[in-house]
Amino acid sequence: MPATDSSSAATSLGRSFLSLRRDHIPPPSSDHRAASSSDLEIDAFHRHAADLLLDLLSDSDDLLSLAWTRRLLDSFLICLDEFRAVLFGVAAAHQPLDRLLLDFLDRAVKALDLCNALRDGLDLVRQWRKHLAIAASALAPSSSDHHHHQHAPLLGEGQIRRARKALTDLTILMLDDKDAGGVVGQRNRSFGRAGSRDSHSHAHGHHRRSSSGGSSGSGSASHLRSLSWSVSRTWSATRQLQAIGGGLTVPRAHDITATGGLASAVYTMAALLFVVSWALVAAIPCQDRGLQAHLTAVPRSFPWAGPVMTLFDRILDESKKKDRKHSCGLLKEIHQIERCSRQLMEATDAAEFPLAEEKDAEVKEAALELVQVCESLKDGLDPLERQVREMFHRVVRTRTEILDYLSRPHNAG
């Protein structure tokens, strides 16, 4: 089994699944035959997935921010752990289940490349932040000046020129990404090197890149070469999403009965894998990103059906807004980068020196907002990347466990 990040935030979240089951499972009605323990556990899994999605929808102002995206990944990791608890706590030898699990594994492997592409996208946002920081440091008054704003010296021509140069470089970088995938498609790293020196050094901000363009290393990590490569220049986030969600159909009643209800849990987990992948691609810069893929209609008998459709609709609405249509990503902080940069370029365009006090105040006000964006990116990008890395390793671990389960003698026939 590949090494995983034992410090994952998700492992310390909330209560254990056993306590969740106690809280979510209602007492059997005296008017109906008491449901089996497995039925109740599967039902609790479905309803907790719905609760987590509803919680994500509860704060519309925070939608697609760095903090919200981390919560999205937390929710996914919780659901994945609960899915494993249900699957391995209830599973027996069922041929339909074996077929459905192999289909789920195929989708899960496709999500691994997506995780690598998402890390590349977050690294790109880091590059943007460097240019923002240059502009912010050139224009923003120091903390001491901020408290005595009326006494702060007027901005000079050199400061304005330095800031405009940084913002121009930033704009070119962002346009390159929109037009041709930018440097997103030229990365050479992979989460596959779990437990290697690279994984450790990356967590501290030092990136070692494989000259082969794929996963490298030995021991527990070497077999991941077959699971995930760093994305190539022809890789497409849109096609990858279509592969993860394509052909995902609601299990037949016969299969649900034949698997003791587990077929519905496998379907739910596969749907959540697609939904989370789709939302991450919507938020984070990715090569050839697009939101055309959509989840086939989910029957209302699944408690999470309504929340999932609402989530899709809200993200699509966000993507259709006039000022977001051609954005590199719907992450709230990316929108702030674009807006702050535009405001500062407009405020400093054709500036005459010395600046009038009103113009100076306008530029400094815009620069302070730029400082705030820089700080939120500085605080939020690394934790989000750790969550994406944890998603990668948790999916790999789940895949290993399922393959082990399928290879046991009692599943041979």
TrEMBL record:
Q: Which Pfam families match?
A: ROH1-like
Instruction: Keyword check for Membrane, yes or no.
Output: yes
Highest taxon, organism lineage: Eukaryota
Q: Per UniProt, which keywords does this protein have?
A: Membrane, Transmembrane, Transmembrane helix
Give the matching InterPro entries.
ROH1-like
Topology relative to the membrane, per the entry?
Single-pass membrane protein
**Where does this protein chiefly localize?**
membrane
Instruction: State if Transmembrane helix is listed as a keyword.
Output: yes
Instruction: List every stretch annotated Disordered.
Output: 184-221
Cellular compartment(s): Membrane
What GO CC annotations are associated with the protein?
membrane
Q: Which PANTHER family match?
A: BPS1-LIKE PROTEIN
Q: Which family does it belong to?
A: Belongs to the ROH1 family.
Query: Mind telling me what this protein is named?
Result: R3H domain-containing protein
Whose protein is this, by species? Oryza brachyantha (malo sina)
